Amino acid sequence: MAANRSATADRRARIEQMRRAEQARERRNRFLTLGIAGVIVAGLVGFGGWVLVKEKNEREQQEALAKAPVKAEKTWDAKKLGRNHVTKAVTYPMKPPVGGDHHQVWMNCDGDVYKTALPEVNAVHSLEHGAVWVTYNDKAPAEDVKKLEQKVDKTPYTLMSPVKDQAGAIMLSAWGKQVTVDGADDPRVDQFFTKYVQGPQTPEPGAACTGGMGANGQPGAGMGQ
Q1: Using CA atoms, how far apart are residues 86 and 71, in angstroms rounded to an integer?
Q2: What CA–CA distances, in Å, run from 42 to 37, 105, 138?
Q3: What are the angstrom distances between the C-alpha of 203 and each of 123, 160, 171, 206?
Q4: 74-196 CATH fold
Q5: pTM: predicted TM-score of the whole model, two decimal places
Q6: Residues near 192 by beta carbon (within 8 Å), at least 6 away in sequence
Q7: Three-class secondary structure assignment of the chain
Q8: Is 168 left (phi over 0), alpha (psi -120 to 50) or beta?
Q9: Residue-level pLDDT, tens digit, the chain, 225 residues
């Protein structure tokens, strides 16, 4: 009987020892899980904070660009630029033109890249709608032209085309505004886009940049805007 009681006590002791070990293991697992979860949450919070700070910095940079003057930019008095719709040819005093009387149909300017010269009277109408027109001549490096095509392609209210007889290799134009840049990576490119794509110089903000004239030269549905 004494031997049986001793064996039973030993078995109970081993069971209790195993139970305590299991409980300790469960506690360690809970602490580990909570610790990992805490690290993940902290990481997510930290990442979210970083994203917000990054977005805030980018917004402030964009606002600063929009307020700062564009170096070597030329400006024309918008009030003196005609806005009549005409059917005849127009001789503009600048190349490319930055405003003036124009055709009633605009060139599509929803990130449109044209490989051939555009009718100026149609492109000027696009500027009236708040578009930025990127132009280049034969002196522009092919790499810069490609980079600018990619930028225009993803930017609404922009268009791009060659202008063989313009003075600068790469020029940017908006209504009443124009600048010659040194290349696609010139910081004035981003600044000009930031300031003038649907910028405060726009005579008709919000007017369409689609439904006009496309690459095939055929007028679309947009008329008389």
Answers
A1: 34
A2: 8, 56, 55
A3: 14, 20, 21, 10
A4: Glutaredoxin (3.40.30)
A5: 0.73
A6: 70, 73, 132, 172, 174, 177, 179, 181
A7: CHHHHHHHHHHHHHHHHHHHHHHHHHHHHHHHHHHHHHHHHHHHHHHHHHHHHHHHHHHHHHHHHHHCCCCCCEECCHHHCCCCECCCCCCCCCCCCCCCCECCCCECCEEEECCCCCCHHHHHHHHHCCCEEEEECCCCCHHHHHHHHHHHHCCCCEEEEECCCCCCCEEEEECCEEEEECCCCCHHHHHHHHHHCCCCCCCCCCCCCCCCECCCCCECCCCCC
A8: beta
A9: 565 666 666 777 777 777 787 787 888 888 788 878 777 877 777 777 655 664 655 556 566 667 899 999 999 998 899 999 999 999 999 999 999 999 999 999 999 999 999 999 999 999 999 999 999 999 999 999 999 999 999 999 999 999 999 999 999 999 999 999 999 999 999 999 999 999 999 999 999 999 999 987 766 544 444
Q: What residue has token string 């009987």?
A: 1
